[in-house]
Amino acid sequence: xxxxxxxxxxxxxxxxxxxxxxxxxxxxxxxxxxxxxxxxxxxxxxxxxxxxxxxxxxxxxxxxxxxxxxxxxxxxxxxxxxxxxxxxxxxxxxxxxxxxxxxxxxxxxxxxxxxx
Length: 116
Hints:
Layout: E1 6-9, H1 20-25, H2 27-34, E2 43-51, E3 57-59, E4 62-67, E5 74-82, E6 87-92, E7 95-98, E8 104-110
Antiparallel strand pairs: 1-2, 2-3, 4-5, 4-8, 5-6, 6-7
């Protein structure tokens, strides 16, 4: 069974990962998540079901550096969900490739928070 987790971006900060179970069963988490509404929830971000080479969970909106087995160059792109094809892609300036084609990638940031 696929692990279904989410994060919420409110324009100022990112929530910790949570499940639907957390929202329905944990009153303190519902209160915590409710505090995000003060700024307005801008985006709900879903876990892709994949982890990078360091074991970090890959979420929609993450920026990645990836090596495709058919190419020598490193691809830098964002994780996006294609609603027509119902799959996650790495979206970069010169490519749009399903994440399933990559085995060696690393999360280097996300499109919401400033990267250090």
